[in-house]
């Protein structure tokens, strides 16, 4: 599995393609350096370097890429990679060998105090945004100099606080380059731990809406993890409700490519906190949200929105097959 990271490595920050590397789990400081790597198995990681990494991705037979940005308090091996593999398995089951999942591993804390971890990870997500703004630049540079034209659709799924990293990376790129390119076909913001007005013009996350054809927001009012986030942010004098709790504060103020999916009927089916609800169920069957994501990837258009509406309540029995047949 290809991935990129700005976590500290035991072997040091100097890039050396071909070397075996290990995460320094005791060091959670975000790095300015980016490492382009391949995970061959648990604890078996090779640094490829940017050129070889992009070449591997470009030559993959899979026609789409889905970057996966994990949430807070997540470590690489116990959580981030297994989650990415479950996501890959679910998409393969629904779409066949169509989409390549590429994790984005950013440094999260692993202290005993969850509240302390939360604020440490907020800062780490924001600081990591600088490194991943550079990754966008590297992607654009590689696309310009490549002799082989890449026709793959690039998509992105950000979960929880991973949306904070996404917001800062795109805002930083827009700040330094004057605008953000339309890099993505679809951006999926799942249980987003950012303010619910962030996608409006003039707000910090507006660049997200410029970077994709579709921005699909999945939210649930009974997401217990985001309730804790709300309490934590109130203690930090931040009073805005979370996008992953309510959807956009005022949908009419968001661009027309922003779609909101109410997941109240399904989020508790896959996770006791109702927060990580974009994967499969206990029997390995792709959940309703994952099926909605797969349908969007397959057709390029988020299904379920009728008569110009940009909000939709996802039913528990949502099935990808019906929508894929309609698209075909």
What does this entry look like structurally?
The chain is α/β, with parallel strands linked by helices and about 325 residues long. It has a single domain (about 60-325), classed as Rossmann fold, CATH 3.40.50. Helix content is about 35%, strand content about 20%. It has helices spanning about 50-60, 75-95, 115-145, 160-175, 205-210, 225-235, 245, 290-300, 320-325, and strands at about 1-5, 20, 35-40, 45, 65-70, 100-105, 155-160, 185-190, 210-220, 260, 310-315. An eleven-stranded mixed sheet has the order 2-4-3-1-6-5-7-8-9-10-11, with helices on both faces. A hairpin with a 2-residue loop joins strand 3 (about 35-40) and strand 4 (about 45). The protein is globular. The two termini are about 30 Å apart. Residues about 110-115 and about 230-235 have low confidence and may be disordered.
């Amino acid at each position: 599995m290809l991935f990129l990271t700005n976590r500290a490595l035991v072997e040091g920050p100097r890039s050396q393609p071909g070397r075996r590397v290990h995460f320094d789990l005791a060091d959670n400081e975000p790095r300015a350096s980016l490492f382009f790597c391949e995970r061959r198995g648990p604890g078996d990681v090779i640094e490829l370097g940017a050129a070889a990494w992009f070449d591997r991705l470009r030559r993959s037979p899979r026609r789409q890429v889905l970057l996966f940005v994990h949430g807070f308090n997540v470590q690489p091996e116990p959580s981030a990679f297994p989650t990415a593999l479950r996501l890959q398995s679910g998409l393969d089951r629904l779409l066949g060998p169509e989409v390549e999942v590429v994790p984005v591993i950013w440094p999260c804390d692993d202290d005993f105090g969850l509240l302390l971890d939360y604020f440490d990870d907020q800062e780490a997500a924001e600081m990591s945004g600088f490194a991943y703004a550079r990754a966008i630049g590297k992607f654009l540079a590689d696309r310009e100099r490549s002799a082989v034209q890449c026709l793959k659709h690039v998509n992105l799924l950000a979960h929880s606080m991973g949306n904070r990293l996404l917001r800062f990376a795109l805002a930083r790129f827009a700040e330094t380059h004057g605008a953000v390119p339309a890099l993505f076909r679809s951006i999926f913001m799942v249980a987003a731990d950012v303010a619910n007005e962030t996608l409006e013009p003039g707000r910090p996350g507006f660049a997200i809406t410029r970077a994709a054809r579709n921005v699909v927001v999945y939210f649930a009012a009974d997401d217990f993890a985001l309730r804790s986030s709300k309490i934590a942010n109130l203690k930090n004098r931040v009073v805005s409700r979370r996008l992953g709790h309510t959807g956009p504060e005022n949908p009419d103020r968001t661009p027309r490519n922003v779609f909101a999916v109410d997941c109240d009927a399904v989020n508790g089916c896959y996770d006791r906190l109702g927060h990580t609800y974009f994967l499969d169920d206990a029997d390995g069957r792709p959940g309703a949200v994952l099926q909605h994501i797969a349908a969007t990837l397959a057709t390029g258009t988020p299904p379920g929105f009728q008569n110009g509406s940009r909000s939709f309540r996802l039913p528990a029995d949502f099935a990808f097959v019906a929508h894929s047949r309609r698209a075909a």
